[in-house]
Specification:
The chain has a domain of 176 residues: P-loop containing nucleotide triphosphate hydrolases (Rossmann fold). It contains 10 helices and 15 strands. The longest helix has 40 residues. The strands form 3 sheets. It has a 6-stranded antiparallel β-sheet, with helices on one face. It is of the alpha/beta class and 373 residues long. A hairpin with a 2-residue loop joins β1 and β2. α3 packs across α4. It is globular and about 70 Å long. The two termini are 27 Å apart. Keywords: ATP-binding, Cytoplasm, DNA damage, DNA repair, DNA replication, DNA-binding, Nucleotide-binding, SOS response. The RecF protein is involved in DNA metabolism; it is required for DNA replication and normal SOS inducibility. RecF binds preferentially to single-stranded, linear DNA. It also seems to bind ATP. This is DNA replication and repair protein RecF.
Length: 373
Amino acid sequence: MELTELSLSHFRNYDDAKLTFQPGVNIFLGQNAQGKTNLLESIYALALARSHRTKIDKDLIQWGQSQARISGIIENRFGKTPLSLSWSNKGKQARVNHLDQSRLSTYIGQLNVILFAPEDLDLVKGPPAIRRRFIDIEFGQMNRTYLQLSSQYKRVLKDRNAYLKAWSFGGKKDAVFLSVLTDQLIELSVKLILLKQRFLKELEKAAARIHREVANQTEELTLHYKTAVDLQQVSTEEELLGALQAAFSKQSDREKKQGTTLVGPHRDDFTIEVNGVDVSNFGSQGQQRTAALALKLGEIDLMHQETGEYPVLLLDDVLSELDASRQTHLLMSIENKVQTFITAPSLSEVARSLIKEPKVFLVKDGTIQVETK
């Protein structure tokens, strides 16, 4: 999969820009606050219909303008597909092949991207919410069923939490209605947990292989899914359903007092271990960075396995965060494999020696020029 063209109109600090890319490595060079990351953000948004930097859509619209638009052409084994995404005071509009998409679940997955930025090091050492978001974003691109189930789950969870909150403040207390919401949430939880469990097992295989290579065969990476029930004690979907029903029943009184749902995939996590030790809490910074790198690179192969296409890789100023050895492994892993976009103020000697014939864009004050050789 490749992004061959990108057009921006009133997006962030860009009035109007049109770029064409090559299949290999494309590099945006420039000092800070010139617009490099905005370009990567536009590619990410074109893929996922959301920014990775803000939850407020109007932040993406250029100051003084009423709307913004991103469009691009992707090319995969099926041919070329135009995509576009626009924001205005009427909301967000996504199009595939110039046709409006009434649901974002039918839009997401047309262009698959993997973003690796300095903050992704928090994937290992950060709070559980970061790892839950990682699963939702990455697996949602690969699996439309997961994306739809996740959306349904969030809607039911929102309704259940609202009802529990009203209950806790002495509002209407209809045990039958709460039971209906609980049953709906449990049914969706079972399906999501099984999909997450499969995803993490497959990711572990890919990431463990890469981790061994980076660590010179001295360390073994494992991932452990943590949910409300002990998954080692359940072997069938029916057993998981029963275990979740028991878990919800156990927390019922606390939920009514606290006014929120205490059980379900929205509270799940996974641990990252190296040689049996949780690197989130006890690993060195080097081990944490190696684990984060292995997870991100493992995604590339997993996405290819799940979709039949390699994703587009976005590296936002991440090379400066990696030492020479990890830079080397990262750049050698992507060579002739995935289309890659890199932002950096400058390139290290390691990067220059390993990146063969990149297309370089010079970014300054919201203007872009192609570097001539």
